[in-house]
Amino acid sequence: MTTNTPTQTYQISKTLETEYPLIDNDPHFKRVVRYARPSDYAHGLVAAAAGPGLLYGMEKAFPSRVGKGGFAQAMRVTGALGAVGGFLYFYNRSILRFYGMSENAREIQMDMREMVDRVKAGQPIYGESQLTPAMQGVAARQSRFSALFSHVMPWFNFVNHSQHGVDTAKYYQQAERELEAERLSRGGN
């Protein structure tokens, strides 16, 4: 006899002890980029320009005499590597705030506002997904805390799922408080 009891498609994720509160242990790629601070962009641009800048400076100080077109090719390769490295540095600075590994007061406010607005609009907190719950669990397990290893293998979360390592009740409670305050301000009973 077969029973139709649902099976658990995910495991409770580990939490890391950090100085600041955890916002999300597996944020979507778009959220990480959207929550980035201007200083993250500045650091990323400086990191991206460092490689070509240093190569140019070394060429001026100690000419390589590679011949026509040789230095231009080296600059293109260095520029491409610098752009990738600069983006990864920018991305890591932003995502570490989600993990609570650096100061994240601004991101906590942005997260609360975004999620409460989604609750009030009747939308799923972490977005719609085309995947089954089992596949969402696989995706979550593959990308959770992945930025901590991005210096070896960059891995981003492009999947909407509900496994983010935080208690979502806080969003619903805040939405209820705001809806109640709105009702009272309109003079409702």
Commentary on this structure:
This protein is an all-alpha fold and 189 residues long. It is built from six helices and no strands. Helix 4 crosses helix 6. The longest helix is centred in the middle third of the chain and has 29 residues. The chain is elongated, with a radius of gyration of 23 Å. It starts with 28 loop residues before the first helix and ends with a helix. The model has no long low-confidence stretch (mean pLDDT 89).
Shape: elongated
What percentage of the residues does DSSP assign to strands (E)?
under 5%
From the N-terminal CA to the C-terminal CA, the straight-line distance is 54 Å
Total number of strands? 0
Question: Percent range for helical residues?
Answer: 40-55%
Overall pLDDT score:
89
Structural class call reads mainly alpha
Low-confidence stretches: none
Q: Please give the largest β-sheet.
A: none
Helix count equals 6
Series of H and E elements: HHHHHH
Using only C-alpha atoms, the radius of gyration works out to 23 Å
Q: How is the topology of this model organized?
A:
Layout: H1 29-34, H2 38-61, H3 70-98, H4 105-120, H5 133-143, H6 169-185
Helix pairs in contact: 2-3, 4-6
